[in-house]
Amino acid sequence: MSKKVVVVGAVAAGPKAACRLKRLRPDWDITMIDQDSLISYGGCGIPYYVSGDVSDESELRETSFHVVRDTDFFLHSKGVRVLTRTRALAIDRGKKTVTVRNLDTEVEQQLSYDYLMLATGARPFELPIPGVKLDGVFAIADLHKAIEIKQRIAEGRVSRAVVIGGGAIGIEMAEALTDLWGVETTLLELAPQLLPKLVDRHFAEMLKNHLVEQKVAVYTSESAVKLLDNGHGCVCGVKTGQRTLEADLVIMAVGVRPRSELARDAGLDVAAWGGIKVNQRLQTSDPFIYAAGDCIAVNHLVTGRETFAPLGSLANREGRVVGDNMAGYPSVFKGVCGSFIMKAFERCIGSTGLTWEAALAEGFDADYALTSPPDRAHFFPGQAVVILQLVFDRRSRRVLGLQAFGMMNDSVSARVDAAAALISQEGTIEDFGLLEMAYAPPFSSAIDSINAAAYMAENMCENRLHRVDHTRFLAWLDDESIEPDWMVLDVRHPLEAAPCIEKFGAHRWVGLEYGQVRQRYQELPTDKTYVIFCNAGTRSYEVQLFLDHIGSYTTMVLCGGTNLISRLKPDWMDGK
Fold first, then answer.
1. In this protein, which residues make up the domain named Rhodanese (predicted)?
2. CA distance 69 to 87
């Protein structure tokens, strides 16, 4: 028997659910409504449209076979009716109707439904500071805003820009403005690091250093307190607690909040922070109303807690689950690991699961294995370093998260994706060590970097590997009084070790090449605690095992070695 379905929201989750349902139930009457005139577009592609990587906004709305997804497309190709410029005002759950208003004609009507889906998305957060309504101030709310930003830049009206917010969108917008258009760009972030809650601080610091190398000014632990008026209603600058920055364009990218007012007003269960509560079938507290996309609260597969995951990829998967369940085909959405990846100029950074800091806050006995292997076979032309961090629980040996930072290629995404699959199944260190990855020298080493990170974690759990925290090590380099008995044992080639010995002094830094340690270890005084130092940490670990066997030495390994430190401390060590 035919049923009526109303879908509120026509960007990602809504269209996916509507089209899936129409395929499964061709005789059902399905109507989508959206308050915008542009629908079904790739919002995550907006920074790449601004940068010019995507040449025209229509490409964000096209199918893979280059047909624009507009109302005619959905009606004639999908059999789904779409009402654009139409806002949902209220839900009457008893009568099963939705009151909607056409924003052009102001005409209201009631749409009846057997099933209703809420895919209302999220809205950008607006800073509560003076000047946010000035001309030239934008939040990336929709495709219309992106079109206007690009038009202003293309017309030569923007020479200086300030991006407020150091999350993924803010960083991508800073890159877009700088890379193609040559706009003098400043990035502000209130937190002490970029990408807060997505990566640990040392990964954020590596990214920050690369942005600075690419001429983006970056200020963390700093917030905008006022946007300045040029006297004609246009923005001309940003005032922070520390400085005043000139700007023709200000982009606020300080996060988004779920659009859940319609659900709350209808008496549906909504989390205190705004996400619509759903079960694994994505039903709300009313079994005839489903919700998906950026408006819902989802389950975090590591913590088991509610979380917010506003990503187009997830919205599409959730939309399919909604379509299945409405059609009577049981389907579940179990939750998310929080997988993330982004491009920043010539680098790529990604993560999945929990950061080390988040794992500690959740009460896990958390530690991390930090490695810096080549992103493919070391002998293959063009190989480059990737920094990889495996977060794990020492008691259960469960892997809790993975982070990676490397060149803009496939090396980061392949490891993050593999890790996400295992983490979602509560994979252990041993599972990661045995994980089969496709191998050929252009793609990876024979021992994949994800396996190597697991081996290190296993060695740490078995107390074979004792590491020094790199933050503590860097602090000691600045002030040797922090640990007066420490000394670096540099097992690299003497030509590599010599500049450090000259800089920090022979009383703090000694060179003894890896291949000579077994023959010359007795030259090392036994009253020091040695921080063993090499390029990646592999040789350092082997030397540590040997000296532990001797029994007269106290040692720690600087995991990641120069590959890591050069990306964190470019003022004293060159790195690529």
1. 482-574
2. 20
Instruction: Collect the ranges in the chain with pLDDT lower than 70.
Output: 570-576
- Amino acid symbol at 484: P
- Looking at the DSSP assignment, which residues form a beta bridge with residue 226? 239
Bridge partners of 477? none
Q: What is the pLDDT of residue 496?
A: 94
- What distances in angstroms separate CA 93 from CA 96, 118, 251, 258, one per listed residue? 5, 13, 39, 21
How far is Cα 278 from Cα 325, in angstroms, rounded to an integer? 13
Burial of 435 (0-12, 13-18, 19+ CB in 10 A): middle
Say if CB 408 and CB 397 are below 8 A apart: no
pLDDT given at position 575: 42
The number of residues making up the chain comes to: 576
Structure tokens at 275: 């996400």
CB atoms near residue 209 (< 10 Å): 19
Q: Which two tokens stand for residue 184?
A: 């003098």
E strand residue ranges, 159-243: 160-164, 184-189, 217-220, 224-229, 235-240
Domains contained in the chain, CATH given: 4-42+58-122+257-327 (3.50.50.60), 137-254 (3.50.50.60), 340-461 (3.50.50.60), 470-568 (3.40.250.10)
Please say whether the beta carbons of 121 and 295 come within 8 A. Answer: yes
Contact 349, 167 (CB under 8 A): no
Q: Which residues of 452-461 are buried (b: 16+ CB within 10 A; e: fewer)?
A: bbbbbbbbbb
Say whether 44 is catalytic. Answer: yes
Q: Which of 19, 44, 500, 534 is catalytic?
A: 44
Outline where DSSP puts E strands in 380-520. 387-393, 399-407, 486-490, 509-511
Position of tokens 């009460």?
A: 363
- Type of residue at 353: G
Q: What is the DSSP string of 128-183?
A: -STTTTSBTEEE--SHHHHHHHHHHHHTT--SEEEEE--SHHHHHHHHHHHHTT--
Give residue 576's pLDDT.
Answer: 38
pTM exceeds 0.85 = yes
Question: Tell me, what's the pLDDT at 573?
Answer: 66
Share of the chain above pLDDT 90, in %: 87
